[in-house]
Every structure is written in C-alpha cells, then in structure tokens.
Design brief:
This protein is of the alpha/beta class. It has a single domain, classed as Alpha-Beta Complex (Spore Coat Polysaccharide Biosynthesis Protein SpsA, Chain A). The chain contains six helices and 13 strands. The chain has a seven-stranded mixed beta sheet, with helices on both faces. Strands 2-3 form a two-stranded antiparallel sheet. Strands 7-13 form a two-stranded antiparallel ribbon. Strand 9 and strand 10 form a beta hairpin. Helix 3 packs across helix 5. The longest helix has 16 residues. The protein starts with a strand and ends with a helix. The relative contact order is 0.18. The mean pLDDT is 92.
C-alpha cells in the first residue's frame, strides 16, 4: 500500500524535557545535527509521503518559522491549536478540516526518533497494513531494549500481532514507539476534544481492528533531558563505531 499523507504531532508542552523546552518546542530539539521534527518529516518524505500535517501550540511561531525554512520535502500544512486537543483530538480535527484526506495516513509523535532495521520502518508498516481488515497498525518496541524510564510497558502482542493492554500490576513487554498507520475510520464518531488516541485504540482493540508490528531497528525514548544526551551518544557510536 502506498501512503502519501501523514500527521506529525508537535503541539505538546514538553514539560518533562524542561529546562530544554522552556523557550522552544520539544520537536525542535536537536539530535544528530537535525531537529527531531526534521528527522520525522525527512523519513516520511523518503518513503513517498507528499503531504504532512503538523499541529502546533507550544512555541507555535517557532515551529512555523522553522518549517518555513525547509527547502525540500513534502507539502507542510500547519494546524494551530488555541488549546491543546491531545493526540486523538488533534488527528480528529485534521480529518474534520480536510487537512487529512479520506485515505490511510501515518501519525508520528513529534519527539519520536528511530533508526530503520533491514527495511525502512514506514514501508514495512505499509506492507503489513490492510485497510479492509484494520483501522490501525502500531509500531511497538521491546521495552527491555529501551534506555530510560518506560514504566511497566504498554502492550502484550500475540503471534498474530494482536495487541493487548497491560493488566493491572502486570509488566508488558512492549512500549508504543510513537508511530502508527491509521485510517479515518479509527476516528469515526470521536468524543469531544480533548481526547487521547488511547480512546480510539481501545475501541479498535475491542473490535479486533488493530495490530502491532515490532520494530527491528533502534528506537530512542526521549522524555527527559538525559534521554536526549544518551541518544546523542548512542547515535554517534552507531554511526562511527566510536564512543565519546
């Protein structure tokens, strides 16, 4: 399946990343010489995405100015939010406004940073996605391979890729990696915003219309300033074979 549209979620306050985010948006933080937001958009463009919706709220003018300086890549559509709509509310608003068309689309957290395995992660997701059977395909990562605090994990995944929420007091082996492939049907009849994407995921889990694919490359959990520093060191080591 060819996916040509996406949404990058870039409106959050980034409170756990302070003081780095006191005067800038979290997706504008640099890693490996480029901002997290540019990394996400570059990866989407590389797999054929021609239109990317970016929602903004915290430091919205900085995000807008930064994106205006991009010389190549997909068409960027800004979706300012006067008040935070949360992850699910933001995507629902983009669908309602027509910024996202009635076709499958990627949703990428603006602070997500991943490195591909043997095949590009986004193309791997597209190859495993069947919109006749699924409303969403989630990328998950093995929690034990993640540096940083991941709590008790998010999901268990059976051999057919069916995710199950972590039960109370249970430790789940997988954490959501900040990427999903979705159809507009996932957000049909949404609750009033603000609401989390978890609301529509739970509905899809109940209906059996959601699957998960396990990431086969590197993924960085970027929640706190030290996570960004550790990711910079790991990225340098991966690219050069050297440690700092």
């Amino acid at each position: 399946m060819s996916i040509t549209q996406a949404m990058v979620l870039a409106a959050g306050l980034g409170t756990r990343m302070r003081p780095l985010t006191e005067r800038t948006a979290k997706p504008l933080l640099p890693l490996g010489g480029r901002t997290l937001l540019d990394h996400a958009i570059d990866r989407l463009h590389a797999v054929g995405v021609s239109r990317v919706v970016v929602n903004t709220h915290w430091q919205a003018e900085l995000v807008q100015r930064h994106l205006a300086r991009r010389k190549t890549g997909p068409e960027i559509v800004l979706q300012p939010e006067a008040t935070l709509l949360e992850t699910g509310g933001s995507v629902a608003a983009a669908l309602a406004s027509g910024a996202l068309e009635n076709a499958p689309f990627y949703v990428v957290n603006g602070d997500s940073f991943w490195m591909d395995g043997p095949a590009p992660t986004l193309l791997r997701m597209a190859a495993e996605f069947d919109s006749a059977e699924l409303d969403s395909l989630l990328l998950v990562h093995r929690a034990f391979q993640v540096h940083g605090e991941v709590g008790r994990g998010d999901f268990s995944v059976d051999p057919w890729g069916k995710p199950r929420r972590r039960r109370e007091r249970e430790v789940a082996p997988y954490i959501y990696a900040g990427l999903q492939l979705a159809t507009p049907a996932l957000f049909a009849n949404p609750p009033p915003p603000p609401f989390s994407t978890n609301v529509v995921w739970d509905r899809a889990i109940q209906a059996g219309r959601i699957r998960a694919v396990v990431h086969d490359g590197l993924w960085f959990h970027l929640s706190r300033p030290q996570d960004l520093s550790e990711a910079e060191i790991a990225l340098h080591a991966n690219e050069t074979g050297e440690t700092r």
